[in-house]
Amino acid sequence: MYDRAPPRARLRDTAINLGHGAGGKAMRALIEDVFLGAFGNPMLDPLEDQAVLPLGDLARHGDRLAFTTDSYVVDPLFFPGGDIGTLAVAGTVNDLAVSGARPLFLSCGFVIEEGLPVETLRRVVASMRETAERAGVAIVTGDTKVVEKGAADKLFINTSGVGVIRPGIAISATNARPGDKVLVSGVLGDHGTAILIARNQLALEGAVQSDCQPLHELVDAMLSACPDIRCLRDATRGGLATVLNEFAQSSQVAIRIRERDVPVRETVRGACEILGLDPLFLANEGKLVAVAPPAEAPALLAAMRAHPAGAEAAVIGEITETPVGMVIMQTSFGGERIVDMLVGEQLPRIC
To answer: Which pairing describes strands 254-258 and 327-330: parallel, antiparallel, or unpaired?
Structure first.
């Protein structure tokens, strides 16, 4: 019986050209050398047009599927604390995790600009592999497109993910109730500030790194301590302010937070003051926002702080009945202000 895998093609080019997206030998070499070399697994290796996922394995983890997709266009590709590859895997893993799902499988689609150095692509793919291994997910299918120079900006990545939600978990933005507590998993605005630094728009004495990281293990610990978490979402584009407004509007409640309790690094706060930005709107890639019943909030906070990804977690406010659909912040000076949803784009190409 002949079952030996054929040898993989080797990519000898130093830069991506249009032939690498044309469906011929050059594309085959790119896929086999760069992508299979990093992501290879039994579901991906046959290079079919789809991944076949065994239903029995999925059913063992829960009773519902969670499915999500996101695209990543961050500029620059590499920044303090991560790169577009780290972001593409962690971002999709986190979108699954905050539904209460165990992330299992990812797809990845690459749109590559002609002329991108192959070594740059290899670095990004290596980051994706490392982050996927850390998150316990397999990249099982994908796609590659190459566009003419100037038709894109270096590299765009789409990742979609499938996870399974365990029985009894019912997390939704519509679940918040008056009296519930609002928690965040740590300091806010690090990712947005790291991107500013990487774009050389800001000179800061204190280094700030992106918080980009998978949050599935933190969510597991949170659900073990408090299975009745009402709402859960990662605070990415639009930051904390946008997530809270989404909760308030979806649940038809009000949310009141205290500025003094919202954790923000002094370096990030200083950057916001210089540039006229609000840390409540800055993107995060490794922080989440939770709403939990008041009686269970202390246990939930303790579980979050016991995990490295939630060591600086805090209770920042509570749910009230009115004014419906609004977020109100008690300022450090004792007054109040409305925290509205982000209008426009505070910082483009952030993820």
So the answer is: parallel
